[in-house]
Amino acid sequence: MPEGLEAELYAGAAAQLVGHQIISIDVDDRCADSMQLATLIGRDIIGVKRHGKRVALVIDGAQLELYFAMTGRLIVNGVAPIPALEYGPSTERKEWDRLVMTTSKGSLRVNDPRRWARFTLDPDWSMLGIDLMADACDLQKALGEHRHRTVSVKALLLDQRVIAGLGNMLADEILFGSDIDPRRQFSSLTDDEFERLSQQISLTVSELGARGGSHKGALHPGLRTARAQCPLDGAPLQRVTLAGRTAIFCSQHQR
Ligand SMILES: [Zn+2]
Q1: What are the angstrom distances between the C-alpha of 39 and each of 33, 35, 96, 105, 138?
Q2: What b/e sequence results for 126-143 when a residue is b if at least 16 CB atoms lie within 10 Å of its CB, and e otherwise?
Q3: Is the dihedral of CA 92, 49, 138, 141 positive or negative?
Q4: Is there a contact between 178 and 186 (Cβ–Cβ < 8 Å)?
Q5: Mean pLDDT score, 18-35
Q6: In terms of residue numbers, what domain contains 20?
């Protein structure tokens, strides 16, 4: 699944269609209610919204969420803003198109081999926490409201109701950069550690955003599969399952 940084790239690409009228929508019935989506034909795309990992087209009087799941890709005017997902296919087939929207000046497609992509009219985002690209002070304040929580630090970072948009790779990278063991209870962090962690979120998000994605960090995907060593100190990297995801961390400098 795209993390917040990838969703931002998608939102930026979809913005090319703002100001254009929807001419046709062809959708896989297993991914959306095609009758409902047909009501959008003839209306104008007036904006694009992103919050966390979620992206929606703002259409005169409605919003259409584009959910990409694990392997869905967005293609706008024939160009994929993210050429190949880390765990997805690098090629596409026409029969994998789950949504094809043509407008007065271009087109948008979502291509997904596994058919997990979903397109929802007027989605409810009210449960989402603060966006990962929010101001660093606001992020720290939002995180501070959870200081009593006894879940692992990694689970707290992945909780979309706390901070929306952090996925597995960004969360591992943030903990790597703040020298914190992902298994620690969130409530056990000292004031210094809490400060370091909350500042690292904005740092990691802006650094990896500038480099082009969640997979461009110190713990890049090459280190996630092999028996790898910490790029900082050479200690063995460890992996454990936390909140249902594989966490990778340094056995030496993350405490
Ligand atoms: Zn290390």
Answers
A1: 11, 7, 23, 19, 39
A2: eebbbbbbbeeeebbebb
A3: negative
A4: no
A5: 97
A6: 4-121
For residue 235, how far is its CA from the centre of ligand 1 (angstroms)?
6
What is the Å distance from ligand 1's center to 237 Cα? Answer: 8
Are residues 98 and 205 both part of a single domain? no
Ligand 1 geometric centre to CA of 173 (Å): 12
Question: Residue 53 pLDDT > 80, yes or no?
Answer: yes
pTM: 0.93
Q: Are residues 18 and 89 in the same domain?
A: yes
pLDDT, one tens digit per residue, over 241-250 is 999 999 999 9
- β-pair partners for 49: 56
Q: What spacing in Å lies between the alpha carbon of 255 and ligand 1's midpoint?
A: 10
Ligand 1 centroid – CA 136 distance (Å): 25
User: Phi-psi region for residue 125, left (φ > 0), alpha (ψ -120 to 50) or beta?
Assistant: alpha
For 218-243, the pLDDT digits (tens) are 998 888 877 899 999 999 999 999 99
CA–centroid distance, 176 to ligand 1, in Å, is 8
- Note whether 94 and 179 are same-domain residues: no
- Establish if 78 belongs to a structural domain: yes
The answer as to whether 255 is a domain residue is no
Within this chain, do residues 111 and 135 fall inside the same structural domain, yes or no?
A: no
Give the CATH number, domain containing residue 95: 3.20.190.10
